[in-house]
Amino acid sequence: TLSLRDALPIYDESGNLGSTRVLVNVIDTIGPVLRTQNIIVHLDQNGTATANPNLYNSGSSDNCTPANLISFQISPANYSCANLGNNVATLEGTDLSGNSSFTSVTTIVLDTIRPDARARHLQVVYLDSLGSGQLNHNLVDSFSTDNCYIDTLYSVPLSGWSSFTSHVHGC
Question: What is the pLDDT of residue 142?
Answer without folding.
Answer: 75
